[in-house]
Structure formats: structure tokens, C-alpha cells
Design a protein that fits this description.
heterodimer, A: about 200 residues, mainly alpha, Arp2/3 complex 21 kDa subunit ARPC3, 7 helices, about 0% strand, globular, B: alpha+beta, Immunoglobulin-like, three-stranded antiparallel sheet
């Protein structure tokens, strides 16, 4: 999902950077002392998850845990993803520094959408498993679409890019759905306060 | 109250880093070398997956004008004869591969590399003209040229796996050190943020 350096045009890169900066600013404002550790933890998880390859489907894809980040962090997913992407570019040569803004947006916006769309159902014990699966699944789908948009704004046709990326990421969507479902279920039992749930 | 949370955090981090150990960075790699009269290359993702049927562009490294476009085959390999313009002007070739889903890799093949491999082995090095030279020595020198050409060809063939290895060695692999370094950075940043916030909290509590 990381767009490589040297593909996107300058306007796309700049607008990506601006949106990422605004999101990160809001995200940082929303982090209080209690939330710092969860944010750092999920940022590390995202950073490392990029190394876990999914050897299924046509492309070369890896885990991202965007849905999990969104559901657990809300707006704070922006700084968490930005830092993790920066470190991935630094250590693993994923993406690059010029495309950092665009990559942050294509992964954080889906996280935020998942937060607003599925969070009410995650707070409800009965609908929690289904809602968290949908969050994991939907996040990758949205991120694929946003990546395709970013590519289409430069030169590649939108449908061609979207088809390629979504086809490659279908296994990831299902795996992330399951991971999100189990992680949220586990945390709700063991550490409900990390999810800001009111009951144990 | 806070201790179990931090313990869970550490547990998760350790779990994830072990989970990730055998994996490698996710990046599109290209490497290319010059064989006899042709340029060969391969494109693959760093997990080892081949990039199949993907467009390959040979560009002039300075002006970035595309001189030639071809496709990789089912095994991610490609080959092409160096474009006329590049040979005449001795251009360094920037070989780029783009998968269309946002991955891009490039490889610089300098003019020296492909021109020395492509130089015509038969006769071109021996300009005709000095007919008056002693016949025997002429035959000898032709022989030397022929031998030189054969040696060059053989050497090229033998060196291809070596060149390939060298090219693969250029790829940086992510190891445990990188992973732990990254996690360390994140924890450090969290610490800085926590410090600032606790300072702010203290200030407001003393003010109020």
C-alpha cells in the first residue's frame, strides 16, 4: 500500500502533506496522558506489521492493522501512522520521505472512517465481533481505494490501479478482519479501559 | 493499575517482533546487467515474489527521456538490446519498473558496463589499412583479437551470476536490529510526549 518515491506529481504530494499535517495536529491534541501508551503500542504494531507478508493473491502485500488502529485510537491514528511510516521509510525503505504525507493520508483516513462507522457497534457487546471484523476489512478496502485515487490523480487510470490494488489486498482484508476481531475481543476482556469501554 | 497495561504493551511488542522475524521489507527491486550485446534484468519484490508482466522503461539517466519500453516475462525477467541512441551517445541507462499499484524500482546501468559487454568481438578492433605489415604478425594479432573476444564472452557469461549476487547484495534487508530500533524510537517519542504532558499537568495543577 506504500506508494513509492518518484511516482506522484508535486501537487498530489503537497496536498497529501497538508492533509496529513492537519490530521496529525488534531490527533496530537486529542492524546492525553492516559492514551500515550496505547498510541505508542499501536504505532509499534503498525511499524512491525509491515514486515509480515501475506503470501496469497497476485501481488506482494503485508499486514497494516489500520482498522485496529482506527477503532482503538480515533484521531490519534494520524500521528501513530505518521511516525510508523517515517520509521518504515527510514529502516525498511518502504515508500519514501516525499510521499510520507500521501501515504499517511491513505492509511489514516480509512482508520478514522472505521472509528466513526463501527465504534458505536463495538461498544455494544453483542455486535462487537461483527463490527470489529468489518472495521479491519473496510479499512484495507478504503485504503486501497484512496491509494488508487492518489495514483489516478497523477497518471495511472483509476479503475486499473484500483483493480490491481484491491485484488492484491483481498487476502489482507480478510486476515485483518479476523485479527481486528480477535484483538478487540481479547482486549475487551482483559483490558477494557484501553478501549474506553465502561464495563469489564 | 498502570502496571498490567504496560506489561500487555511489552508483551504485544515482543510478540509482534517474533512474528515478523522471517519476513523482509516490502519493496520492488530491480537489477540489471549487460550480457553479450543485450541487457538482461530481473524485477522482484523483496519477499522474493517475481514482478510478472510489468512494464520496464529504459531512460536516459540525465534527461529522463524514455528510450525503450518492454515487459517482464512470467518469471519477472526482462531483456533488451541497448537502444541505438544510447549506444551512440554513451548514455547511462536508468532502468525503472512500475507495477501500476504504486510500486516502483530502479537500477542504474552505466554506459561503461553495457558498452564493454556489447562491443563487437570480431574484427572491429582491428582497423584495416596497414597491409604492408608482415603477414605472420598480422595473423598473430588477429588471433590475439579473436582470443580476446572469446575470453570476454566467456568471462561475461561466467560473471553473470556474480553480477547478480552483487546486485542482490545492494538490497538492504530489514533485521531484528531495525525492528527493535524502530520500536525504541516510538517508545522514546511516547516518553517525550508523556513528559511534556505531565509538565503541563503539574503547571495547571499548581496554577489552579
Amino acid at each position: 500500500m506504500h506508494i513509492s518515491e518518484g511516482i506522484l506529481s508535486a501537487p498530489v504530494l503537497i496536498s497529501g502533506g497538508v492533509v496529513a499535517a492537519i490530521g496529525t495536529f488534531i490527533g496530537l491534541k486529542k492524546i492525553d496522558l492516559e492514551q500515550i501508551m496505547p498510541v505508542a503500542l499501536l504505532s509499534s504494531a503498525f511499524f512491525v506489521a509491515g514486515l509480515v507478508h501475506v503470501p496469497l493473491g497476485p501481488g506482494s502485500v503485508h499486514l497494516m492493522l489500520i482498522g485496529l488502529l482506527g477503532v482503538m485510537l480515533g484521531w490519534a491514528a494520524f500521528p501513530a501512522i505518521l511516525i510508523a511510516l517515517f520509521l518504515q521509510a527510514l529502516f525498511f525503505q518502504f515508500g519514501g520521505f516525499a510521499v510520507l504525507g500521501v501515504n499517511t493520508v491513505t492509511m489514516s483516513v480509512p482508520a478514522l472512517c472505521c472509528y466513526y462507522l463501527t465504534r458505536p457497534w463495538i461498544d455494544n457487546r453483542k455486535t462487537r465481533p461483527a463490527a470489529s471484523f468489518i472495521a479491519g476489512f473496510l479499512a484495507i478496502l478504503l485504503a486501497s481505494l484512496l491509494t488508487a485515487c492518489a495514483l489516478a490523480l497523477t497518471d495511472t487510470g483509476f479503475t486499473a490501479a484500483a483493480q490491481l490494488i484491491i485484488a492484491a489486498n483481498v487476502p489482507v482484508m480478510i486476515i485483518e478482519g479476523c485479527i481486528t476481531m480477535f484483538t478487540v475481543g481479547f482486549l475487551a476482556k482483559v483490558q477494557p479501559e484501553i478501549l474506553h469501554l465502561e464495563y469489564a | 493499575m498502570n502496571r498490567p497495561r504496560i506489561l500487555t504493551a511489552l508483551l504485544f511488542a515482543v510478540l509482534f517482533s517474533f512474528f515478523a522475524l522471517p519476513a523482509q521489507a516490502h519493496k520492488l527491486n530491480v537489477f540489471s546487467w549487460a550480457g553479450d550485446k543485450k541487457i538482461y534484468g530481473e524485477a522482484f519484490f523483496s519477499g522474493g515474489r517475481k514482478a510478472k508482466n510489468v512494464p520496464v522503461h529504459a531512460q536516459d539517466a540525465e534527461s529522463h527521456t524514455t528510450l525503450l519500453t518492454t515487459l517482464t516475462d512470467e518469471e519477472g525477467k526482462f531483456q533488451f538490446t541497448p537502444p541505438q541512441q544510447a549506444v551512440q551517445q554513451k548514455l547511462n541507462l536508468l532502468i525503472t519498473v512500475e507495477t501500476g499499484d504504486g510500486h516502483r524500482g530502479e537500477w542504474l546501468l552505466t554506459a561503461d558496463e553495457y558498452l564493454s559487454a556489447a562491443s563487437d568481438p570480431t574484427g572491429a578492433a582491428q582497423p584495416p589499412g596497414e597491409e604492408s605489415a608482415i603477414k605472420e604478425s598480422a595473423i598473430k594479432s588477429v588471433d590475439i583479437e579473436a582470443v580476446r573476444a572469446i575470453v570476454r564472452q566467456e568471462l561475461n557469461r561466467e560473471l553473470i551470476p556474480v553480477k547478480r549476487h552483487l546486485a542482490e547484495g545492494r538490497e538492504k534487508k530489514a533485521g531484528l536490529r531495525d525492528i527493535l530500533g524502530g520500536i525504541g524510537c516510538i517508545i522514546g517519542l511516547a516518553g517525550i510526549l508523556a513528559w511534556f504532558q505531565s509538565k503541563k499537568k503539574k503547571k495547571t495543577s499548581t496554577d489552579g
